[in-house]
Amino acid sequence: MSEAPSIFHVDRLDLSLVPKAWAFADERRSEIDAFFLALRRKKPAIWNGRVLLMHRHSVTGGIFRGEYLETDYASFAAWCHWDRPPAKVHDCFSAAAILTADNAFLLGVMGQSTFNSGKIYFPCGTPDTDDVVGDTVDLEKSVGRELSEETGLDITEFVAEPGWTTVVDGSLIVQIKVLRAKEHASVLRERILKHLASEQNPELGDIHIVRTRADFAPAMPRFATAFLVSRLGKK
């Protein structure tokens, strides 16, 4: 059994794009190309865009600092599919944890056309070149974009808790932004489902409501359950 995830609060993020070659992508290029070709046959909606992976990070004085490299989605997807072998990178991304007025959290069930179909976690996504402003990687921008794309909700309608909850689970580093809503879970879920019904190819297939640990599901990754345990306590 691998070590349990670590969870801590940071006041702010200081992230930048510092380009460098990713040896994993170069050394296993032919395997990656074959893997992605097979993946596209099964899930043709998947696009081989450019994504960012973290190659250096530190935490001092409440500030999480990190440097990203740029690579292709095919290499990233292959690395994930092959159980993230040691490759001198971390998958560091932001996630939106919606906390409703009746003290529930909303998680998305990934749609069948996505790479992680069936998995249940917060609206999130690997940062890409759209999240780079100058040489800064803006995870505030990324979390708002992912929230809008996946749920149709605008981040400005929520009250964001200060700072971030950082969850480190092996090669994963998840920067979770807690967003407090004015509406109850059932109301927000219906709003999101209405949005999903209007989409031709929605990223989410459903919304899963978590009020207590009894609502946990096997399809929830460890970073999500670890965060929820830290917030729900013994409920």
Identify the overall geometry.
globular
Percent helix, as a range, is 25-40%
What would CATH call the architecture?
Alpha-Beta Complex
Structural class by secondary-structure content: alpha+beta
CATH topology: Nucleoside Triphosphate Pyrophosphohydrolase
Specify the CATH homologous superfamily.
Nucleoside Triphosphate Pyrophosphohydrolase
Task: Identify the notable features of this structure and list them briefly.
235 residues, alpha+beta, Nucleoside Triphosphate Pyrophosphohydrolase, nine-stranded mixed sheet, three-stranded mixed sheet, 6 helices, 14 strands
Please, could you describe this protein's structure?
- The chain is of the alpha+beta class.
- It has a single domain, classed as Nucleoside Triphosphate Pyrophosphohydrolase (Alpha-Beta Complex), CATH 3.90.79.10.
- It is 28% helix and 34% strand.
- Helix 2 (29-42) crosses helix 3 (73-81).
- The longest helix has 14 residues, at 29-42.
